Fold this protein.
Amino acid sequence: MKNTFLAGLAAAVLLVAFTSKAPVETFKINPASSKIGWLGKKVTGQHNGAIMVKEGTLEVSKGKITGGSFVLDMNSITCEDITDAGSNAKLLGHLKSDDFFSVAKNPTGTFVIKKATAAGKSGKADKYNIEGDLTLKGIAKPVSFEALVTPDGKKMTATAAFKINRTHWDIKYGSGSFFEGLGDKMIYDDIELSLNAVFEK
């Protein structure tokens, strides 16, 4: 009877050990210290600016990223290379229009991490291959990129640089993939994005 009890107790302990999930820590993004940079190119030049992150979290278990989600404030989009106030406002108005991001109808975008795979180290930073869904104009499409995440006690910083094809989100204005005879008015499909984000417990 005693041996049966001990065997049962041992089995229960092993079951708990194998089925217990590691605790998940949540790091919240610091919007004031975080932004997404953008760069769009056309035949005759290029423009660049930023979009602010409204809110977001990273989920961490055993020191590794396991998930996360973020809300982008599309009304915050800026252009940093045009110094003339009138020209700057004209470009921003166009970017917020239905030709591009339809901000009045879709004031926010989202990114949800579906998979984060650790990929070694780069100096003090941990490398991750990130896969997730980016939603713009109400359209969700998968994206993947490499991110560098540097832990620092109760804070983490993350950087990444990658490209998206804007036409996948129905942003076709000036695209040579859909319109002919654009000449020097053609705008390239790829938008280059750069992430700089600070997360805190």
About this structure: The chain has one domain: 22-200.
